[in-house]
């Protein structure tokens, strides 16, 4: 077999190159040497977290690089400036306030498994025995269970703050949007304020998907002075180019300018897609022994990138087309919508894009009907109407996926 059994020879070549440590579409960047772009945002985070009493909240859309920025900054600070531990907690829907700080509390010497002790007292013979110790020869007429509750209270922000106020380090709370209870979010905000009041060296970096910072703090009014909100928007084209050019340089690959421009265009500010496409390009080039990333390699890489894209995007796209008559026409329409300059667009703007970019003319009423069809369905639809006459993609990353999946079709409508 040319590439070994099950492609193992190719895998060995790719692993040896180290390219999967440079282009990381499925995991956050946490190595300083692999972090490109976002210099202004990084400098701001460094300044804030080094300021006494200041903590950080990073929020924005999915896929804009929030976790990569936060992890890189935390690692850099602890290795080069501060001393202390980095505690990482990735939240899920089962998390509560008390479950977020188990590791920091353990580092501070608090064993939460010893919250209470139960003792059984023998009123007949006066003997006492701990639960779990069996004594067959002990006669007991009446037993009373005494519960000794300690002062440990991990559900209290003030108690947690007192235990952690002298601990040196950073706690990165990622995917904070997964915490569903508003009360638990308020407790996190209260802890931020208390640590700030103590001027604690223990800092919180909270990261989550949100349109406003208040969504992650339940609108707690007392944290504004000590919790600096950093809204992470999509990356600039220049920053995306830094990811592409520096990444390929590290594995001794040369990329054509047209390929760079195409990857930047498809990515639309989302570094996730930049990493994904570049990884597939690099893998194809390394396997073929070609040190130049050409447009032909990019075409193959885009097909692989679509296969390797997030399942939610693929399912939404595929289920939408299955339910439609003449799906090819809708593919072209969606691709044109992906190139509209603003998130919310009207049918008139889409007609202009179809004509200018693809030389396709569509009757306005027919176009409106087709757009409306894309907002109907029992499941989550690919488009929705934020206002009368306006349309918007349900997932803001969908335009980038469409540019990968639909870019090579024959444009007829």
UniProtKB/TrEMBL annotation:
Annotated InterPro entries: AAA+_ATPase, nSTAND1, P-loop_NTPase
Domain AAA+ ATPase: 52-234
PANTHER family registered for this protein in UniProt: ATPASE DOMAIN-CONTAINING PROTEIN, DNA-BINDING PROTEIN-RELATED
Species of the source: Aliivibrio fischeri
TM region positions: none
Name of the protein described by the UniProt record: AAA+ ATPase domain-containing protein
Superkingdom of origin: Bacteria
């Amino acid at each position: 077999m040319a590439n070994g059994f099950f492609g193992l020879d190719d895998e060995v070549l790719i692993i040896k190159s180290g390219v999967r440590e440079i282009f990381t579409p499925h995991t956050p960047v946490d190595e300083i040497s692999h972090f490109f772009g976002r210099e202004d945002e990084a400098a701001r985070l460094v300044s804030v977290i080094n300021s006494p009493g200041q903590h950080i909240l990073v929020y924005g859309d999915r896929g804009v690089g929030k976790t990569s920025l936060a992890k890189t900054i935390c690692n850099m600070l602890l290795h080069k400036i501060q001393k202390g531990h980095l505690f990482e907690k990735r939240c899920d829907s089962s998390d509560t306030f008390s479950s977020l700080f188990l590791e920091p509390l353990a580092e501070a010497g608090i064993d939460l498994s010893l919250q209470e002790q139960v003792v059984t007292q023998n009123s007949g013979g006066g003997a006492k025995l701990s639960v779990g110790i069996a004594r067959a020869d002990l006669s007991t007429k009446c037993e009373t269970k005494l519960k000794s509750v300690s002062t440990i209270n991990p559900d209290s922000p003030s108690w947690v703050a007192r235990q952690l106020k002298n601990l040196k380090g950073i706690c990165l709370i990622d995917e904070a949007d997964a915490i569903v209870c508003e009360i638990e979010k308020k407790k996190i905000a209260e802890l931020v304020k208390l640590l700030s009041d103590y001027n604690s060296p223990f800092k919180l970096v909270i990261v989550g998907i949100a349109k406003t910072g208040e969504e992650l703090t339940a609108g707690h009014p007392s944290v504004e002075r000590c919790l600096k909100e950093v809204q992470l928007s999509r990356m600039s084209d220049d920053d995306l180019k830094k990811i592409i050019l520096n990444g390929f340089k590290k594995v001794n690959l040369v990329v054509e300018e047209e390929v760079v421009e195409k990857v930047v265009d498809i990515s639309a500010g989302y570094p996730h897609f930049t990493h994904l496409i570049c990884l597939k390009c690099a893998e194809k080039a390394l396997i073929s022994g070609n040190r130049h990333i050409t447009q032909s390699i990019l075409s193959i890489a885009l097909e692989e990138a679509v296969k390797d894209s997030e399942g939610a995007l693929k399912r939404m796209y595929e289920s939408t087309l299955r339910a439609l008559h003449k799906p090819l026409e809708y593919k072209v329409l969606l691709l044109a919508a992906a190139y509209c300059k603003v998130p919310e667009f009207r049918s008139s703007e889409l007609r202009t894009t179809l004509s200018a970019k693809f030389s396709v003319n569509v009757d306005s009423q027919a176009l409106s009907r087709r757009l409306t069809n894309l907002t109907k369905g029992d499941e989550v639809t690919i488009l929705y109407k934020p206002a009368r006459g306006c349309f918007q993609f349900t997932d803001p990353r969908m335009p980038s996926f469409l540019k990968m999946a639909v870019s090579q079709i024959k444009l007829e409508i």
